[in-house]
């Protein structure tokens, strides 16, 4: 069996010997346990040296999780020849009660409504070759009183603006308002949310120093605006994201310029039903669906700089129905296929949240104070990374194995160890091997093609 304590020895500069020993017992219990992953549940499966008080002490210890994630990834999962991109996303964990630190009302995409919950923002590194995401940093989203007041003010302002627009629609004059001035769109005031993300990105890039170079940060359509673009550029990265489906994009002006006056920049406005063929880079048919991919350097009046835009259209040849998606990057030299590929890889972080909730207790924690709650959130995402390191070795002999097979193996180890303790005499090695192989097959999803070695 894999020695968990030896696997965690790389964390020696960041964790004390006591914390590493406690963490190894907790990790081993989480790998084999069933039921809800709470401190009490962990203590019931941890065995000798893993009492509830020991687990409680670990969860009340301040741990530098960002350094722990990065050091573990570098030691066990990093491939120097591979290509990596940075991705980020927010996840919501529903929670009842009143005392949980950071408890608020957040919008849950799966439920499509605002729910009482806590929210976390995570950064992850995606391997382009492996098509897999590895969590690197997790931070809880805690709204201050100023943020809540600003959000209410923005909502009220939008309502008043809509009423005013309806009332003055017939009275509004054409053209630019008198006295308005040009503004520098590169100088933006970052919201508390963007300042929090920028701080996380800069911290992560500092941890990458001297061993990994990352050029791109992929974020979902919520972050497809100029403020986020400038924030990412300030970090020294290029943004890959998605624009609104009705984004007002303009092609670059290619006509003759006037001899006097400002140079004309904005050309024809993009008509998604009639995009010029000179921007077409790929076309394919799948049944009655025709897919066209266009790429062009385009302008948007809300953005400070030109964008590398990739427009994907899908048209039904019989009905004529058309749908399209607007992806973009601040790197004007990035090919269209990589823009699409890197943005699609952003979704891998969703599988991290899924695994953390399904297997590692992201939905199960009972902690309410800041430090234990921070440790519970980070531990569940850290188990996603650690399980991938274990699966990489496990799949050398069992290529189809997944997390459920890995948990079945460690659960078998626990059952066999406890059974042997009750026997008056230790069985012969052959019998022990047969016993372990039979018991380990009970909880597996994929049958083992070769015998599984006993611990």
In short:
This protein is 38% helix and 21% strand. The protein is α+β, with helices and mostly antiparallel strands and 455 residues long.
What characteristics describe this protein?
455 residues, elongated, 13 helices, 12-stranded mixed beta sheet, 12 strands, 38% helix, alpha+beta
Overview of the molecule:
- With 455 residues, the chain is an alpha+beta fold.
- It has 13 helices and twelve strands.
- Strands 1, 2, 3, 4, 5, 6, 7, 8, 9, 10, 11 and 12 form a twelve-stranded mixed β-sheet that branches.
- A hairpin with a 5-residue loop joins strand 11 (307-316) and strand 12.
- Helix 3 (39-46) crosses helix 4 (52-59) and helix 5 (65-76) packs parallel to helix 11 (370-394).
Structural class: alpha+beta
| Main beta sheet strand tally, sense and closure | 12 strands, mixed
* End-to-end Cα distance: 5 Å
Poorly predicted runs are none
Strand content: 15-25%
The proportion of residues forming helix, as a percent range, comes to: 25-40%
Number of helices: 13
Number of strands: 12
Shape: elongated
Give the ordered list of helices and strands.
HHHHHEEEEHHEHEEEEEEEHHHHH
Question: What number is the mean pLDDT?
Answer: 89
Question: How large, in whole angstroms, is the Cα Rg?
Answer: 27 Å
């Amino acid at each position: 069996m894999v020695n968990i304590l030896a696997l965690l020895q790389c964390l020696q500069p960041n964790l004390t010997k006591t914390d590493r020993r406690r963490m190894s017992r907790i990790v081993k219990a989480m790998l084999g346990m069933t039921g809800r992953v709470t401190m009490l549940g962990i203590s019931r499966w941890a065995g000798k040296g893993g009492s509830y008080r020991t687990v409680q002490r670990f969860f009340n210890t301040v741990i530098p999780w960002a350094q722990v994630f990065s050091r573990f990834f570098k030691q066990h999962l990093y491939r120097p020849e591979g290509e990596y991109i940075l991705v980020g996303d927010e996840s919501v964990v529903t929670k009842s009660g009143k005392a949980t630190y950071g408890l608020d009302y957040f919008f849950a995409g799966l439920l499509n409504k605002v729910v009482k919950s806590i929210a976390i923002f995570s950064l992850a590194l995606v391997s382009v070759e492996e098509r897999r995401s590895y969590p690197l940093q997790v931070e809880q989203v805690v709204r201050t009183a100023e943020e809540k007041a600003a959000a209410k003010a923005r909502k009220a302002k939008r309502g008043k603006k809509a009423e005013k627009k309806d009332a003055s629609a017939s009275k509004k004059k054409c053209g630019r308002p008198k006295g308005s001035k040009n503004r520098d769109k590169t100088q933006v005031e970052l919201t508390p949310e963007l300042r929090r993300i920028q701080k996380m990105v800069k911290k992560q890039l500092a941890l990458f120093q001297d061993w990994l170079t990352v050029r791109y940060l992929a974020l979902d359509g919520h972050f497809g605006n100029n403020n986020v673009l400038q924030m990412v550029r300030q970090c020294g990265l290029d943004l890959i994201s998605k624009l609104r489906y009705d984004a007002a994009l303009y092609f670059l002006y290619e006509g003759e310029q006037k001899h006097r006056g400002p140079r004309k920049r904005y050309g024809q406005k993009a008509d998604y039903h009639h995009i010029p063929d000179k921007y077409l880079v790929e076309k394919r048919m799948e049944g009655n669906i025709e897919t066209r991919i266009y790429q062009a350097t385009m302008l948007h009046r809300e953005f400070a700089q030109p964008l590398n835009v990739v427009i994907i259209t899908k048209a039904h040849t019989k009905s004529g129905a058309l749908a399209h998606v607007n992806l973009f990057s601040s790197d004007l030299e990035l090919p269209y296929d990589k823009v699409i590929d890197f943005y699609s890889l952003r979704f891998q972080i969703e599988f991290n949240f899924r695994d953390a909730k399904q297997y590692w207790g992201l939905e199960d924690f009972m902690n309410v104070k800041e430090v234990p709650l921070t440790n519970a959130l980070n531990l569940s995402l850290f188990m996603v990374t650690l399980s991938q390191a274990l699966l990489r070795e496990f799949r050398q002999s069992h290529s189809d194995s997944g997390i459920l097979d890995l948990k079945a193996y460690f659960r078998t180890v626990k059952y066999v160890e406890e059974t042997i303790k009750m026997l008056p005499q230790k069985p012969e090695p052959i019998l022990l091997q047969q016993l372990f192989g039979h018991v380990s097959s009970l909880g597996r999803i994929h049958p083992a093609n070769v015998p599984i070695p006993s611990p």
